[in-house]
Design brief:
Elements lengths: L7 E2 L1 H8 L3 H10 L6 E3 L2 E5 H9 L11
Antiparallel strand pairs: 1-3, 2-3
Length: 67
C-alpha cells in the first residue's frame, strides 16, 4: 500500500458516478456482482481504482465484430 491514502467513496457517491440507483449498488454488493468494497466498521467504502477495475470487466459494444 502506498504512503498516500486513496480517497474512499461511499455508496451514494458510487451510484452517482456510475449513474445507477443506490438500490443497484446495494444489490450488486448483496449478490457480490459489483465493484470490490471495503468494510470499515459498519461503513462501506469503495476506491476509485475498484470502480475502474469493475468497469473494465463489463461487456462493451453492441455491434457485430469485424471478420
Amino acid at each position: 500500500m502506498s504512503n498516500e491514502f486513496t480517497e474512499l467513496l461511499n455508496e451514494f457517491e458510487v451510484a452517482k458516478a456510475l449513474r445507477v440507483s443506490i438500490a443497484t449498488v446495494r444489490r450488486w454488493r448483496l449478490l457480490r456482482q459489483g465493484p470490490r468494497y471495503l468494510k470499515i466498521g459498519a461503513s462501506v467504502r469503495y476506491t476509485s481504482q475498484a470502480l475502474v477495475m469493475f468497469l473494465s470487466t463489463r461487456p462493451t459494444g453492441g455491434g457485430q465484430e469485424d471478420r
